[in-house]
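User: Before I run my own analysis I want an independent prediction to cross-check against. Here's the chain; please return only the structure tokens and, at the end, one sentence I can use as a sanity check.
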Amino acid sequence: PEQLLSVLAQYVAQTASTKRPTVAASSKPSPQVPVSYTNYQLWRIFVHTADQLQRLEDYRQSPDGVRLHWWNNPSLVRPADVLVPPGVKRDSLREYLEEEGLRYEPTIRDVGQAIAYENPRMTRREQMEMELRTGHPLTWYRYHRYGDIVKFMHHLQRRYPQRVQLLHIGRSYEGRPVTVVRVSFATLHPKRSRKPSKKRPAVFVEAGARGNQWIGPAVATWLLNRLVELPEILQGNSTPASESVDLRTVQSYDWFVLPVLNPDGYEYSHRHDRMWSKNRSNQTQQTPSGVGQALLSSAINWWNAHKPQLSEDYRPEEICHGVDLNHNWAYRWQQATDPIYRTPCSDSYAGSEPFSEPESRAVRDFLLTKRRNLRLYLSLQAYGQMLGYPEMDGAGDTPDKERYGLETFGDVHEMASVGLDAMRTEAGEYLYNLEPEAGPPTYGTATGYARHGAGIRYSYTLRLPDKGTHGLLLPPSSIVPIGRDVFELLKGMIEYS
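Assistant: Structure tokens:
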């Protein structure tokens, strides 16, 4: 501890003694101006042949392409969506696509206007009335800030102390808590329970790995609300007998739900940049390691966030912030060598090494602790209406036509099919495709690590609606229908297991 404090004091002293420009005593740091996407457009690019796909991928990996916001990956299965700024970059992309014979069309002609109408506003009075009436400020007809989600989680713990437990598994780069909500019904009927709590099978649901995917945390909180209300639903006289059996199966599992894996990026996307997807780590700094890492790192991060500007040569535009938390896992991370995964300013930057970020490390440690109980891992992401799973070990050595059949994946594929059938039968608001995932887009992903690193055989990625009409700007009126679909999917999956 003495050595740690000495290092910290030396760092602060050196930084404080650095010459900096004189600032008037009455001046205050100017607040960050929200990023404007006025006149930005979302283009949909259609690919029909392998040659066209390669040419589009070449542009995506070029210096110009790496700097663009690609809302999904180019594929022969579905068109690619890319956020295009006005001016020279738009003209350059248009010229390239026309030269290569790639067809495109704008699906959102003014992204800034779409953002302005995306999320209904809630007055302070309405929020206070909501908290007085329900005990928390969360609704499911608008998207909420991270603080509202935290209040909701604490409300669940206070109202259902025998069912809900908050597990603080770590902190984000900027110090926000990374919290998993555990919902367990083991204490409701202790005499009937044949399995001790430590041996109960469990499900892990994760959302919010990318800050700009607001639909994931909204659906995760709706799912939590549904789970804690199950006993009251079962007591109702209107519940059919067959559904009661299904709900009791749900109660036989422990549920671990992480509503927001990336709290810094999620909050930043609300208050400053709607399209921000990564976390907020500073990629120009070296992360300290060894004894006292968490304390020293937090202190340095706090100091850098509050210290005055150090020199006149300081240029914020040269600092790249953030890592894509869905590509920072130790699953084929070394194979993600494309520039889009190795360029620090890219939206898909995979980090300097696997688990370089505190958020991914926290979830990794939690999964390894619970790995014997976890039967199912589900990552909620946007968008595409697709349920996927990572390829098995050795599947890459088999012919393409055999890679994704039942011979290779067996029960993993079958569980996904059963879950989708249950979703279509009971809810069916949206139609999802079942498409096993492979190739560079899966390198470094949480689902890949959950399957191959933590040993959770049934690990899936669910890409939520829609298929591109709104993309990342999905209206909040879709939250409840999607939540119902996800609940039916999970119910069907655990019934299969």
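Sanity check: Residues 136-187+199-277+354-394+406-496 form a domain with the Aminopeptidase fold (CATH 3.40.630.10).
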